[in-house]
């Protein structure tokens, strides 16, 4: 791709960008959210038309009109947002658009599709029942299905946009083994990720974009984390995690012997004012299920919740909100935002009482809320009426946080707060977390990124198969220790 330019409504998002991938290469594409990475890939695959520039595949000029044309020419895409149809089976999703039928009857060859789907998944080292309805799978397994779908199309170039965001370490290992095996056969990969450790582990070269401009390309072997960050953000980022000045106060929230059927049991811990308490564990350990129950989104089967020392009943999210609990969910697209709504409307969702008078929303109140949150969180928008779906991932995440900061929470639950967020926006979110903690907000944070836990948490609870296996103080935290307990070592938790 050379000289690629693109503008939307007069706003330039790409200017004279170049990008190339060699046969059998794993090539990283990096840049802050909003740098133009996804737009560039959408131009390559025919979702957007370019304003200028040319694209060559195998030396031949191409001009794909849609992703199907790109796929027929050997270019497959795995999008950051899942394109799974939840009510179809795993096999039906794998063959979506390429169904096997009896002639032109439209009747599916279900047995043949199931058999081939099982073979595809086996090659990825997976033993998922291909007859399972996809909505019953975890987000991580749904992502694996997306990857399998792209790999089953015999693509010569596979574009992966944040492919590991929802995967466990074991699933990431399986994915990397598969990528390397396909690379050895000559398959090329475009790898878009904000996880720097992954980039340096799997990629050969890296192209950096900044504010829609081509900054440069580097060989992984001859560059460093610091150089890449500087090229991405145009400035020295300094320490990845801002300094914590923790002033931990009294117990704000205490849970005793919480249980929810087969998901988790005997979970007890205390959360203090001004504390950042992390919950670590592998996918399926029960972390999200615990906080969903705390928020009244899922029903507890046993246990007691105390708020400021008093027993409380939380059976609905509304009850949790009235107590002063906010919850930034793991999946911002389907659970945190209404993507068709504006930034203003999304920020108002949890604050309808604040922006209303006698049950009628007052636009002036919404405007005040919007202005204060944009200033407080540094949300980059073109204005309150911008559709939230057109924001970068980092700014969408800030809108979800803003939605809950409006209620002035006493307890804020953050489930994967920086998933799919670039390195610059990550630090901004970390700063917000620190500022909230300094104000006395008690923060419960789930994270699958161990460096994030080590850099941000005052204490970490570790879960394994629905049980708390450790409660580790900051000075005793190491990645190795957390992983030891996350994989089931020493199943004794101390409060």
Task: Note the main attributes of this structure.
495 residues, 6-stranded mixed β-sheet, 24% strand
Summarize, please:
The chain is of the alpha/beta class.
Per-chain topology:
Blueprint: E1 2-8, E2 11-17, E3 26-30, H1 37-44, E4 52-57, E5 60-62, H2 67-72, E6 75-78, H3 90-94, H4 110-123, H5 139-151, E7 157-161, H6 169-184, E8 188-192, H7 196-202, E9 205-210, E10 213-219, H8 225-233, E11 251-260, E12 264-272, E13 276-280, H9 287-294, E14 302-307, E15 310-312, H10 317-323, E16 325-328, H11 332-336, H12 343-348, H13 352-355, E17 356-357, E18 360-361, H14 363-377, H15 393-405, E19 411-415, H16 423-438, E20 442-446, H17 450-456, E21 459-464, E22 467-473, H18 479-486
Parallel strand pairs: 3-8, 3-9, 6-7, 7-8, 13-20, 13-21, 16-19, 19-20
Antiparallel strand pairs: 1-2, 1-4, 4-5, 9-10, 11-12, 11-14, 14-15, 17-18, 21-22
Task: Provide an overview of this structure.
The radius of gyration is 23 Å and the shape is globular. Helix 16 (423-438) links the parallel strand 19 (411-415) and strand 20 (442-446). The model is unreliable at 491-495 (pLDDT under 50). The chain has helices at 37-44, 67-72, 90-94, 110-123, 139-151, 169-184, 196-202, 225-233, 287-294, 317-323, 332-336, 343-348, 352-355, 363-377, 393-405, 423-438, 450-456, 479-486, and strands spanning 2-8, 11-17, 26-30, 52-57, 60-62, 75-78, 157-161, 188-192, 205-210, 213-219, 251-260, 264-272, 276-280, 302-307, 310-312, 325-328, 356-357, 360-361, 411-415, 442-446, 459-464, 467-473. The strands form 5 sheets. It has a 6-stranded mixed beta sheet with strand order 6-7-8-3-9-10, sandwiched between helices. A 6-stranded mixed beta sheet has the order 16-19-20-13-21-22, sandwiched between helices. A 4-stranded antiparallel beta sheet has the order 2-1-4-5, with helices on one face. It contains 18 helices and 22 strands. It is α/β, with parallel strands linked by helices. Helix content is 34%, strand content 24%.
């Amino acid at each position: 791709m050379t000289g690629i330019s693109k503008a939307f409504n007069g706003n330039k998002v790409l200017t004279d960008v170049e990008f190339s991938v060699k046969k059998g290469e794993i090539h990283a594409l990096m840049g802050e959210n909003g740098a133009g990475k996804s737009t560039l890939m959408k131009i390559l695959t025919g979702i957007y038309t370019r304003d200028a520039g040319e694209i060559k595949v195998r030396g031949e000029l191409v001009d794909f009109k849609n992703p199907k044309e790109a796929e027929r020419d050997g270019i497959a895409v795995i999008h950051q947002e899942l394109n799974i149809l939840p009510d179809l089976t795993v096999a039906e999703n794998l063959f979506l658009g390429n169904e096997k039928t009896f002639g032109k009857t439209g009747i599916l060859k279900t047995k043949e599709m199931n058999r081939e789907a099982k073979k595809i998944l086996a090659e990825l080292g997976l033993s998922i029942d291909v007859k399972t309805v996809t909505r019953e799978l975890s987000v991580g397994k749904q992502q694996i299905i997306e990857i399998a779908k792209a790999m089953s199309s015999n693509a010569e170039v596979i574009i992966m946009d944040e492919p590991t965001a929802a995967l466990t370490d074991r699933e990431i290992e399986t994915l990397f083994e598969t990528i390397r095996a396909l690379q050895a056969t000559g398959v090329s990969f475009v790898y878009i990720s904000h996880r720097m450790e992954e980039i340096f582990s799997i990629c050969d070269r890296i192209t950096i974009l900044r504010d829609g401009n081509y900054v440069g390309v580097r060989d992984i072997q001859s560059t460093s984390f610091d150089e890449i960050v500087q090229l991405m953000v145009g400035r020295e980022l300094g320490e990845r995690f801002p300094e914590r000045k923790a002033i931990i106060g009294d117990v704000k929230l205490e849970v005793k012997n919480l249980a929810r059927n087969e998901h988790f049991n005997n979970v007890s811990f205390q959360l203090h004012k001004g504390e950042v308490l992390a919950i670590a564990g592998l996918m399926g350990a029960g972390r999200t299920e615990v906080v969903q129950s705390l928020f009244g989104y899922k029903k507890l089967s046993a246990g007691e919740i105390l708020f400021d020392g008093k027993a409380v009943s939380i059976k609905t999210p509304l009850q949790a909100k009235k107590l002063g609990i906010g919850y930034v969910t793991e999946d911002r697209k389907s659970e945190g935002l209404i993507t068709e709504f504006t930034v203003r409307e999304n920020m108002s969702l949890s604050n309808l009482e604040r922006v209303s008078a006698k049950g009628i929303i007052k636009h002036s109140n919404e405007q005040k809320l919007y202005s204060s949150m944009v200033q407080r969180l540094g949300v980059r928008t073109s204005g309150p009426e911008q559709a939230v779906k057109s924001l970068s991932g980092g700014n969408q995440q800030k809108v979800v946080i803003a939605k809950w900061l409006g209620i002035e929470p006493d307890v804020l639950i953050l489930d994967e707060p920086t998933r799919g967020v670039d390195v610059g926006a990550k630090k901004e979110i970390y700063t917000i977390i620190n500022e909230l903690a300094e104000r006395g907000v008690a923060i419960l944070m789930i994270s699958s990124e161990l460096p994030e836990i080590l850099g941000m948490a005052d204490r970490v609870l570790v879960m394994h198969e629905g049980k708390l296996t450790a409660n580790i103080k900051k000075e005793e935290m190491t990645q190795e220790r957390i992983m030891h307990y996350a994989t089931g070592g020493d199943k004794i938790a101390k409060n």
